[in-house]
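// run 5 | inverse folding | seed 20
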């Protein structure tokens, strides 16, 4: 299927294992919700599997395309992401979908899309193109750093309005990681972060749900039947699974006890049904994926491929880390799905597309060491 060697097969197998395990957990965690809202217990798992197959098709397509061609699409992708984000804020826009007080999705009929997911990939490609342009451009504040901050700032502006602070955090961390590894000046990184932090905090505290999430994070027992209920049930699910778990489909938290069991808190259901061993296996698979991404970046034949591989790997790794941290009570709730494991949608498509790009980079680098050029 993919040209190249062991690196490709290991990465692809890792993703397929995550997809397989995720599909099992999504089936068991979505059955009750699917029956309640759609009148058929298999409606959601079928939809999930369709998205997985679509994502795998995109993975295959992008793995066959020379990743260097993607560079020419960077400005259209940034423009498309900006346009889609803006559409979510248009009053009474017929395609906009509002859930739990947030308008983050667009319903195109065949699929509900979250523009923030496309924005992540667009940002990765844009930063990779800047970092690989040579001549120390990223160390030049005006020519390199400001353009990146401008694109990031535009995306963040729209995400704050939705509101979608989980993806604001994700995009900010993603940009920070790529810029740091790309050689940006630390004074630029820290200066920009410190100067914008007060504004972000001020905007965040205007949202009541953000305040509740932080209060719950610092004191989960303060409101166990209200703001702290989701985290409480998440920890109950993880604890009841023990070492070996209750078995696939034997969990109880997904039966309207734990909110969002098939999306944001699917890791808790995984712990309940597959136990500590299951959760450690998933964490190990993500660790393996990060390692292979780093290897592909190191072996890339040019700087664009290197930074593109770093960005795609970070895009997946940051979200996975934040999701697991939230489920374990180590971070405030962010509303981010677990890559490849949570119920499929636009995040599934973008992440699988990102893996296709990684495979394209790997297949064109080969197994031997290559000299990296600009």
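// decoded
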């Amino acid at each position: 299927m993919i040209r190249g060697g062991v690196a490709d097969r290991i990465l692809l197998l890792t993703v397929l294992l995550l997809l397989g395990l995720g599909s099992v957990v999504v089936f068991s965690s979505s059955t009750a919700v699917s029956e309640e809202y759609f009148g058929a217990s298999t409606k959601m798992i079928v939809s999930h599997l369709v998205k997985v197959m679509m994502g795998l098709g995109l993975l295959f397509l992008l793995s066959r395309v020379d990743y260097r061609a993607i560079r020419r699409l960077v400005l259209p992708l940034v423009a498309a992401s900006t346009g889609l984000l803006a559409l979510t804020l248009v009053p009474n826009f017929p395609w906009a979908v509002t859930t739990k007080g947030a308008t983050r999705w667009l319903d195109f009929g065949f699929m509900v899309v979250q523009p923030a997911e496309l924005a992540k990939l667009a940002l990765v490609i844009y930063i990779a193109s800047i970092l690989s342009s040579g001549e120390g451009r990223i160390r030049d504040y005006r020519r390199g750093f400001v353009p990146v901050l401008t694109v990031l700032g535009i995306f963040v502006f729209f995400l704050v309005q939705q509101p979608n602070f989980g993806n604001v955090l994700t995009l900010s961390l993603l940009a920070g990681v790529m810029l740091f590894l790309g050689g940006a000046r630390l004074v630029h990184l820290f200066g920009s972060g410190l100067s914008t932090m007060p504004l972000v905090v001020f905007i965040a505290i205007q949202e009541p749900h953000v305040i509740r999430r932080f209060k719950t994070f610092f004191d989960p027992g303060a409101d166990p039947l209200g703001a702290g209920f989701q985290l409480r049930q998440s920890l109950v699910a993880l604890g009841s699974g023990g070492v070996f778990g209750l078995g696939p489909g034997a969990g109880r938290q997904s039966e309207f006890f734990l909110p969002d069991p098939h999306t944001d808190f699917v890791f808790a259901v995984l712990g309940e049904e597959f136990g500590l061993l299951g959760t450690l296996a998933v964490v190990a698979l993500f660790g393996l994926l990060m390692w292979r991404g780093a290897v592909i970046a190191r072996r890339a034949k040019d700087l664009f491929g290197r930074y593109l591989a770093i960005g795609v790997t970070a895009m997946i790794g940051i979200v996975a880390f934040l999701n697991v941290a939230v489920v374990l009570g180590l971070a405030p709730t962010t509303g981010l799905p677990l890559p490849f494991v949570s119920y499929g949608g636009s995040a599934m498509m973008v992440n699988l597309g990102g893996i296709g790009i990684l495979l394209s980079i790997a297949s064109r680098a080969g197994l031997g060491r290559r000299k990296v050029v600009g």
